[in-house]
Automatic annotation (TrEMBL):
Pfam families: CbiQ. It is a multi-pass membrane protein. This is Cobalt ABC transporter, inner membrane subunit CbiQ. One of its GO terms (cellular component) is ATP-binding cassette (ABC) transporter complex. Its main location: membrane. The chain crosses the membrane at residues 30-46, 52-72, 79-96, 102-121, 128-149, 155-177, 239-255. It comes from the Bacteria. InterPro entries: ABC/ECF_trnsptr_transmembrane, ECF_CbiQ, ECF_transporter_component. It is found in: Cell membrane. Keywords: Cell membrane, Membrane, Transmembrane, Transmembrane helix. The keyword Oxidoreductase does not apply.
Amino acid sequence: MSKINQAIYNIHEINELADRKNLVNLVHPLIKLLVTISYLICVISFDKYDFIGLFPMLLYPLLIHYMAELSIKSSLKKILIILPLICLVGIANPFLDHSKIYEVFGITITGGMISLVTLVLKGLYSLLASYLLIATTGIEGVCYALSLLHIPDIIVTQIFLVYRYMFVLMNEANAVIEAYSLRAPKENGIHYKVWGTFLGQLLLRSFDRAEKLYDSMQLRGFHKKIFYAKSQKFNKKDFIYLLVSLMIIICLRILNV
C-alpha cells in the first residue's frame, strides 16, 4: 500500500472510530470541545523549563484512550508523523540558550535542551488531545460544536471543506503517481526534473475535481451554510463528564511532581 493510500485509509479509520457508540463518543460534541480546549490551555501554561511538571498531564489522554476503547499504539503511530515538525521548531533552542539548569554525571544540561524537551512534550500532548477529539467526535461533530460557540460560519465551513477536500487532493495525487510509475517503472520515486510538471498537473486536476464537487453541492441546495450534524440536547451525563474532566485536568495541572 502506497503512503497516500495509507493516509486515506487512516482518515477513513478515524471517521469509523468516531461513529462508534461508547461512553466518550456519546458525550455532547460541545462538552468534548470545551474539555479539549481546557486541557490544551493547561498544557501550554507550563513554564518552558518545567518538563517534569508536564508528565502528570499524560494521564488525561491515557484515561480517554481507556474510556473510548482506543489503541494508544495506533494513536501514537498516527501523530508521530507530525512530531518532527515540532522538533524542527525548537531545534535551535540548545544553540541559543546556554544557561546551566542541571548537571548530571558531569554533563551540563542547558536551558535550551530542557526547553526543547518541554516543547516536544507540549506538542505531543496537544496532538494527542486533538486526535482524541476527532476520533471520538468526528469532523461533523467538531464543526457542530464550533457553530454552537458562534464561530463565524465562513471559518467553520472552511475547516469542514478543507477536511473533506483532502480526500480529493490525495486521490488525485495517488492517480498521478500511479500513472507516473506505470510510465517509468525503473524510477524509484518521482524524478526531481518532473516535480514542477507533477505539481502543475495535480493542481489542475484538483481544481477540476473541486469545481465538479461544488456544482454537485449547489445542485443539492448548498447556500454557504452546512448543517454539520443533527441537533443534540445536553443531558446530565454531559455535565457530569464536563465537571469530572475539568477537575481531573486542574488537579493534574497543580500536581507538584
